[in-house]
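Retro notes, item 3 of 5
We never archived the inputs for the adenosine-5'-triphosphate complex last cycle. Fixing that now. Sequence and ligand:
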Amino acid sequence: MLKVKNLSFSVSEKGTDRNILSDISFDVRSGEMLVITGPNGGGKSTLAKVLMGIEKADSGKVILDGTDITNYDIDERAEAGIGFAFQQPPRFKGMTVDKLISLAAGEHKSEAECCSLLSRVGLCAQEYVKREVDNTLSGGEMKRLEIATVLAKPHKLCIFDEPEAGIDLWSFSMLIQQFEEIKKDKEQSLILISHQERIMQMADRVMVIEDGKVAGIGKREDILPQLMKQGPSCCSYLKRLEDM
Ligand SMILES: Nc1ncnc2c1ncn2[C@@H]1O[C@H](COP(=O)(O)OP(=O)(O)OP(=O)(O)O)[C@@H](O)[C@H]1O
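Structure as it came back at the time:
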């Protein structure tokens, strides 16, 4: 359903170009959960931003369900069916939680519907539904609200960038449950960027991004042991995962 072909992205630093993503190709199948992992600074979040149209690739193609969306902007990609939850969600002063959820859903959501969504991500709904989405919300609250906005309507493809970051153990279990339900329904495809072994263990396939390149992609049961066998950087990376 998603085909990514030879995607490259660079930034200009002090007059010279620096490659952040180099020739990335992969696909995501219908109803599949692909987990993207790899060392810090490898390019995972940048890849997610390029897929969502927040950053523009220098070259390459993105095809969604047979439609070339390479030149689509962020709104057009959302319209085409891609949902995205940022690693660090933006705050919107003056916007209330229920308004934000209705905006994300593309239709008015009643207070009861907002409460039900918030409960799915472990937020005590009554306390939050009329709160402002400003810096009075904690990092973990913002993160869960952001995830609720993606869950607010069905997408063809949902991209979650480190959904586990800053989330407490209890809410994390609820999130895992949400991902399991999406996976079971097979209606939506999922890309999860994660360092969490529990999330990787749910994946149909795992892709490792290192130094802006695809260092490996395959079935979870093939890729995780393979990561261990590879060079010292991969070994130490996996060791850190085991320690989490
Ligand atoms: N706009 C930019 N300008 C300069 N450098 C950038 C820009 N965007 C990303 N980078 C650099 O590109 C590299 C990849 O960053 P990215 O956030 O994609 O990594 P990541 O794999 O998601 O890391 P983490 O696991 O720490 O979240 C980093 O070295 C980052 O500093």
